[in-house]
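Hi V.,

You were right to ask for the full record rather than a summary. Here it is.
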Amino acid sequence: MANLDILTYGFSFTSDQGGFGYSSVSLLEVGSRRILIDTGPSSRRAWVLKALQTRGLELGDIDTLILTHLHWDHCQNADMFPNAKVLVHPKELDYAKNPNPADLNTATYFADMISKLEVNLISDGDSVVEGVKIIDTPGHTRGHISVICSVKGEDLLVAGDAMPDVGTVKRGLPYNVFWNVNDAIESVGKILDSSDIFYPGHDLPFRLDGDKIDYVEGPSAIQVYGYNEGGFGPALTYSVDSCRKPNIDLMQND
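Predicted structure:
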């Protein structure tokens, strides 16, 4: 029986000093297989390790990494897992080897880093293990994939940044599109047709029941710490907007 567990929850915080890149990292256990879907950014390395250890696991226990795409906030910690094989879409890997110099989300060292591990190319319809399959969801990036998992009789969809947040349902579009707008729209429709429970890249898991949206798990509050040992601590202002305008920058087409 498969079990899907969230190691780090995704959030879509931005600031006037840059984005945080807090993506979801999911642990999928099927029989003796231990699979991570995305690995998160380097700022959460310690969090990923601690989350595994609280579940009685070490880094070497992870046998497979499924990378939805090769943006820094989703794949930067792949090097932590020396025994894992990496599953990635061929178009995503090809682009990462020679990204647009203006693409600040994709660094060439990502391709170099995962080349030190066993890399297997996967795409739409491929099965990872019984009850776990891949669907192509391009648009956000050229070779983006999502993962459908059969857990306790229900299909759960781990969407990555093809559906980064619950707002994607209303917009019909992820809030960042770097490859193709039409592909991104089609991918959202494909995702919505595939499941009723979604694990987005930068939001908490949620269930759809018609037009009703219900979050199913995750923290309802976050604590931010600051320090003023030098006699000064910057003030923080937290603003919540009712909608997010999509950023369309098709740099992966250049």
